[in-house]
Amino acid sequence: MIRKIDHIGIAVADAAAALKVFRDALGLELVGTEPVPSQKLVSYHLRVGESNLELLVPSDPESVIARFLEKRGPGIHHIALAVEDIAAEVERMKAAGLQPLAEKPSLGAGGKQVLFFHPQTTGGVLLELCQGSDGAEDGRSGPPA
Ligand code: ZN
Asked: InterPro entries from the entry (predicted)?
């Protein structure tokens, strides 16, 4: 079951400039900053109710986010949906013809299991499924303690 929008990932070239907009101008709370080595980026989590905006800043010019920024500039990169059972959801979505970008979920921000689906099979939206490491009922998706 898909529970909620966990976060919206926003590709950012200049973290300071983006924080000026999302933290300072919008007044959102910066609840955590976290390197995500598996994706060669640093993510900044800004809480919006029960979801987050995640600013994605590349830490390596060869990262997916760096290439996205080169091609398309800053902007929305993906939408992440929180699920209760990622293995079951992946099977369900594959059966419906959606194509995952990897064989298996990997470790993403916040210690969550994550798997992306190809935008060509999801109506042009890069979708991420994520399952919290703690299985917390409130779906809190902040950084690890
Ligand atoms: Zn994400």
From this structure: Glyas_Bleomycin-R_OHBP_Dase, MeMalonyl-CoA_epimerase, MMCE/EMCE_epimerase, VOC_core
